[in-house]
Amino acid sequence: MDYVYGPGRNHLFVPGPVNIPEPVIRAMNRNNEDYRSPAIPAMTKTLLEDVKKIFKTTTGTPFMIPTTGTGAWESALTNTLSPGDRIVSFLIGQFSLLWIDQQQRLKFNVDVVESDWGQGANLDILAEKLAADHTHTIKAICIVHNETATGVTNNLSRVRKLLDHYGHPALLLVDGVSSICALDFRMDEWGVDVALTGSQKALSLPTGIGLVCASAKALEASKSAKSVRVFFDWNDYLKFYKLGTFWPYTPSIQLLYGLRAALDLIFEEGLDNVISRHSRLGKATRLAVEAWGLKNCTQKEEWFSDTVTAVLVPPYIDSTEIVRSAWKRYNLSLGLGLNKVAGKVFRIGHLGNLNELQLLGCLAGVEMILKDVGYPVKLGSGVAAACAYLQNNIPMIPSRI
Amino acid sequence: MDYVYGPGRNHLFVPGPVNIPEPVIRAMNRNNEDYRSPAIPAMTKTLLEDVKKIFKTTTGTPFMIPTTGTGAWESALTNTLSPGDRIVSFLIGQFSLLWIDQQQRLKFNVDVVESDWGQGANLDILAEKLAADHTHTIKAICIVHNETATGVTNNLSRVRKLLDHYGHPALLLVDGVSSICALDFRMDEWGVDVALTGSQKALSLPTGIGLVCASAKALEASKSAKSVRVFFDWNDYLKFYKLGTFWPYTPSIQLLYGLRAALDLIFEEGLDNVISRHSRLGKATRLAVEAWGLKNCTQKEEWFSDTVTAVLVPPYIDSTEIVRSAWKRYNLSLGLGLNKVAGKVFRIGHLGNLNELQLLGCLAGVEMILKDVGYPVKLGSGVAAACAYLQNNIPMIPSRI
Amino acid sequence: MDYVYGPGRNHLFVPGPVNIPEPVIRAMNRNNEDYRSPAIPAMTKTLLEDVKKIFKTTTGTPFMIPTTGTGAWESALTNTLSPGDRIVSFLIGQFSLLWIDQQQRLKFNVDVVESDWGQGANLDILAEKLAADHTHTIKAICIVHNETATGVTNNLSRVRKLLDHYGHPALLLVDGVSSICALDFRMDEWGVDVALTGSQKALSLPTGIGLVCASAKALEASKSAKSVRVFFDWNDYLKFYKLGTFWPYTPSIQLLYGLRAALDLIFEEGLDNVISRHSRLGKATRLAVEAWGLKNCTQKEEWFSDTVTAVLVPPYIDSTEIVRSAWKRYNLSLGLGLNKVAGKVFRIGHLGNLNELQLLGCLAGVEMILKDVGYPVKLGSGVAAACAYLQNNIPMIPSRI
Amino acid sequence: MDYVYGPGRNHLFVPGPVNIPEPVIRAMNRNNEDYRSPAIPAMTKTLLEDVKKIFKTTTGTPFMIPTTGTGAWESALTNTLSPGDRIVSFLIGQFSLLWIDQQQRLKFNVDVVESDWGQGANLDILAEKLAADHTHTIKAICIVHNETATGVTNNLSRVRKLLDHYGHPALLLVDGVSSICALDFRMDEWGVDVALTGSQKALSLPTGIGLVCASAKALEASKSAKSVRVFFDWNDYLKFYKLGTFWPYTPSIQLLYGLRAALDLIFEEGLDNVISRHSRLGKATRLAVEAWGLKNCTQKEEWFSDTVTAVLVPPYIDSTEIVRSAWKRYNLSLGLGLNKVAGKVFRIGHLGNLNELQLLGCLAGVEMILKDVGYPVKLGSGVAAACAYLQNNIPMIPSRI
């Protein structure tokens, strides 16, 4: 039943889908249930309350849609905008590119602000556009919090400040797919109108729930948004929320129980501790990359991502070979370079339910692979650099003190 | 972790989500994997080939979309039709009603043919409409194969014959949600252009895959269909099919392995034997209903459904009370009456991976509940009627002879 | 991976191993752990406390030995007795026979009191023996609480009364394999010195833990008992109990978590409610047997067992054929007749985590099988009789009211 | 349900119970079954055949006893020997000590040959004893193949040669608990009479099966062995082998399916490849220890163990602190020093279903812990040494080439 079995654990370091904790796998190990019985609504109610916490919102309205991140994007856009609406959108890597492609196909008027892959969103241009937009033709700003293809984290707080500075009413729509529940994300404080993520990312579940959270302003906008939508229509959910049955169509029973378990683990660890752990793993990875003498695809420290690191390889090496070798020889799954950076970078995902020793095993593996493909790495160098930092910073496990 | 635990097995007799076989639960009991590694495409390829078999098509193109039945509907419609297109659609119960609602909200011009709930689609009216439609304004016929709310199975073969008789080019779009893999369904033979089902129905998986299969004619139609679509766009899938990587966005690893196991079980039993088993269970249920002196919501034998039986209760009984009591006292999950038949019918789902003794336990439970709510049933009568039929018709389990 | 797959659930009605509840299967779905870490002793401590509750003892000392019921027997005997010691032991069926065989092979002087298979232990003879034993040559009374082969429950309270009446100091060793946690069992009240059961019986776990509970008097006896023992030696456990590490050798991590979950479910339902449920299922089964016109192997009502019913078949039927047909045609697992009653009885186990509708499915199946093998049963008759009783006696599920 | 949850995977590096592969966890995720149905004997038959392969015997008779290693020891001894029989037994660490304790309590006349902990069995003394034993008073040689407490592997081939050289008929009883299925073990070639292991060791299952394999000579010896035994009696098994039902008492259904899956994985990898993998992991661990400037508890290279490495710490460090810190801060489970070497060594288990990157994560963790406890380790040094060796020696994963 495994198509290509290898001994020992698979070391899963793609930036999603990520490792599922054992307690979550256990919670999902169950038969179907009638979702119209009182049991599922009772649980759903707790989920909706708790999902708000990971978005850091008290005023937002969450939707748990049986879809992927791509569907969550579509839900965010079609519920708040009308065809022809002007959107400012930032192209900084493969996933922002795909979102922009979707925006265009959904018939919005997309004002693309492009950066080099490896740079963050150009917020100076955003400032200019906002300044110039006296008539408020811009209906929404679409931005990925963390570009998974290049390991770039954008400064959302500054986006909010710019909007406020110019008193601009545009909606702020944020792709938090590889950030929410791993990076510091503050929906209410940053005035995000729609934020979204996928269950298979930092929540450490299987793929299958697109989590979308809408501000009051976004809900208001949905009343007049003319984009055609049915499956992704928030209104169908809101109707069932009022009835207390919650589901306009059949949810995955297993994923609901899985989400319940995943949230329980996150709250047991503490959301801020989860974020600190990601910060630790990100920093350790970057120290290793530096020790190897390799460059981070991310061009400035301010954009460094704590959930994924895209590593640039020297021109004489094909990064695809690294990913292939990792899987074929070491049972290690790394992320490919995508599109513009194909062959040029490989990616180490360090998000989700992951600890330091897992990462160190991965880093040791990367060192051997680098040697395999002819890069003159000093074996142990990256691990040593990471360990030197980690040994001073890993906290005790609270439940074990 | 169970919100409302009761001793023993839950007896799950809603018409979806249905019981998952243990081998399928086992197959899904796994960590995530990198879906871009060679393993997942290798498995996906076998799935796409095998999914065609359950649609009984050799020429169709299947799509396994991370969505529910509602999403599968949307995929069928938006890929083949343009806003304003005229559709003939049959309203015979809650699920056809919901599909029609979707069709209208997607801006099609829906020509609704309504029947009493409990009757099948009025194909005489279809004949009239086709006869009258010399200019071929009808672009598609939308029909549910099996209306889950009333337990009515429509005669698809006759729909095809009518289309052929009038030489009408309309697309034939079929909701096979509660039929495919349980009832006799023949995509190629009946010239169905788009057929669809959901993983949580006869395939006996969790919710999460909308399986959609398109004929060559449907694929051709998708090239000019102007409905806006991105997440549900077949074209994105086709692009990745060509690349051999298969997935435009992240699938659920667990559901893929689950589907692999589910198909293996179905083929081990034999698809035709699976269908015979459903026919046996449907017949047995109807014999029990008759023995109880109750009426089937389905008004004529030609429409009797082998996957769900909606049972009419006398006016002095609220069928909702039956469903509630089943769950609260007997750990039995029955289907509610929906919308027009709320309070008037309760439903026994008999689809998916289910055997005769499971059904008999359910029927015995229903007898006790009927007595609980004041209906003068003769205890044992339904079970006796069902057993008399089953005892003569259950085959030996092939692997155990 | 299933050697002989059949569609739907297997209906497991052998009197052990019994159905495992889903939450328990989930709890065991885990990797190994270091049993010397602080986690396992912490859990073990709660288990030992809670296991005492199912024996209804506050003063006993429990042992959770990685073995089967056969090993638990050996543990009970070798820790309390010396070779040559006189034991009074009751032979009333296959399992008491096997225990007696073990007693003899362990070199005890076994004074066997035999009854017809289908009768309980002859306590009148016990009374005589106790009366005659002025010098207290009898060191122990060995008795099964419930003989699984014939469905006979012995009156332990009367055994205690006899011992007390004669002021006899013999140890009272009780096989509670198919009783404890299902029948009314009171270790302290009845002055039982060693009681034992297996995890795969009423606790509804996999095989693998022999649960043995020793009174203070039994522990005292163990100090002078000369039977050679190492693996089964209580003293090794007691040593590690004192250290707080609890395990003299490696336990099954999975079974410990499973036992934790199993006990949680039992306490959630309430042990007395669990016992009432068994009483209900036993009674319902006997009513069905009566309605079929068949005889219970158990000859008097006072011995009727609420965990297993052995059904006598007419001489012209081979009961083995019934069991075979059940499995081959109906995916139903019934118990064979063993040894003296082979071919003459089949057994319906109704113990463990089981509810009424499961049992009714089984009873309906048995009716069809009886017809298959040529017995002129009135189909529905047994189910009707059982339902008539159950419908008046099944309580609401407390968590669902 | 986890008593002391920590984020990420637990890194399990105790020398048993070891990591269970996901496919094996999956295979065990199931309900109970009737073990008297034809299915379980059919599977058992394949297991008995395949278990012989991991012992490298074609003539031996295997027993899969529901017990632990301690029980397997008892089975080996009591089936082949009589009280008072002279045994030569080697005391070289905690587990050989415990076995000797058992031998003494089972009333054998144990001739103990003691070595320093860290040395192998003193075979020179064995030679002397054999040479002197003209009357063949020595009935058995008992020896651990691999002493788990000190990481010492004994030379079994030399033991056989000595026996042959002196034409001595003593039985050769081998504890292969931490060797079989991981180290090179050859039952037939080395003339081993009883070999045994536990399921939770190299087979990578939960605890619960004691696997014992008896040579024809051992079976012959069992006919006259006078040790009292019932639960562990081979004869009961042999009786049921002949009947084709295989089980004298209830086995764990889950462990049987688990063993089936475990053997399938081992044969897919190839037993010799499994052994090579262990050799690789052992060598890598020793290179790391050397790089850290620490000593192996094992005093000579000829005794180095490829399944467990006991590392001596400097006198100013308490090795218990290392194990505690590993668990409390790094979610890493290491083995404690036991008895004579308590506080002086910690152990790294590297057996079972484990790959190189898992080990490297552990080694990186150990480096940080060493620093935590004040040992001046050069971070990265051990990992570098291990990687330098591994990078040249890890083969491609055959299924992925």
UniProtKB/TrEMBL annotation, chains A, B, C, D:
Q: Name one GO molecular function term.
A: L-serine-pyruvate transaminase activity
Q: Top-level EC class, please? A: transferase
Pfam families (alphabetical): Aminotran_5
Q: What is this protein called?
A: alanine--glyoxylate transaminase
Q: Which GO terms describe its biological process?
A: glycine biosynthetic process, by transamination of glyoxylate
User: Which annotated residues bind substrate?
Assistant: 347
Keywords, sorted A to Z: Aminotransferase, Pyridoxal phosphate, Transferase
Q: Please name the InterPro entries in this protein's record.
A: Aminotrans_V_dom (IPR000192), Aminotrans_V_PyrdxlP_BS (IPR020578), PyrdxlP-dep_Trfase (IPR015424), PyrdxlP-dep_Trfase_major (IPR015421), PyrdxlP-dep_Trfase_small (IPR015422), SP_NH2Trfase/AEP_transaminase (IPR024169)
* PANTHER family reported for this sequence: ALANINE--GLYOXYLATE AMINOTRANSFERASE 1, AMINOTRANSFERASE CLASS V
Report the cofactors: pyridoxal 5'-phosphate
The record's family statement is: Belongs to the class-V pyridoxal-phosphate-dependent aminotransferase family.
Domain Aminotransferase class V, first and last residues per copy:
13-290
Task: State the superkingdom.
Answer: Eukaryota
